[in-house]
Amino acid sequence: xxxxxxxxxSVPDQVFARLCDLIITGHYEPGERLPTQRALAxxxxxxxxxxxxxxxxxxxxRLVEVRHGDATRxxxxxxxxxxxxxxxxxxDSKILRPLYEARRLVLTQVAGLAAERRTAAQGEQLVExxxxxxxxxxxxxxxxxxxxxxxTLVAAADNxxxxxxxxxxxELYMAxxxxxxxxxxxxxxxxxxxxxxAEAIATGDADEAQEAMTRLTTAQAERMIExx
Length: 228
What we know:
Layout: H1 11-24, H2 37-44, H3 48-60, E1 64-65, E2 73-74, H4 93-117, H5 120-135, H6 139-157, H7 160-175, H8 187-202, H9 206-227
Antiparallel strand pairs: 1-2
């Protein structure tokens, strides 16, 4: 199979990323006017079309408000959707604590639903993926298996909203994969926790699935927060 060349970010993508960073880091505060598109084009050394496209994407994500005949104003990014997670340029303790609190709460509920709704094939797949994580030769292999485990878990829960939430979180996870490697290191400790979750789901024990998931996600959160 021919993979082909790696694509490079387009100019609008680069402008969009730069403006996202300026908004999320507080360089532009909520309610503040953005510079005019002409001024931004001059500042970034790009054409007006690239700036217009970037502004349109910011508006779609509810990071700015565009009023015809008036200035483009910055909105509070905390009021944006889950898609804003994928725009974060840093993953520090301020982000990690609420992120992992939410992860624990959501995945605990997902595990309970998965135990009630999983197919036999999904239960078997979770057990096999838990084994793959524990026996992985490298952190990268374990990380790939971890994501497959979570994706299978969410699919087994059979809840569209949880699936959409997972898609948004996945963007953050993949964009900062190196920073989340601690989720699967120390597999002598974590391997049995994954296995406990998988086996409880496979046998349809919702209470044990939730308790096992709480133990797993708590252990992972402690690793991540302590490392920051």
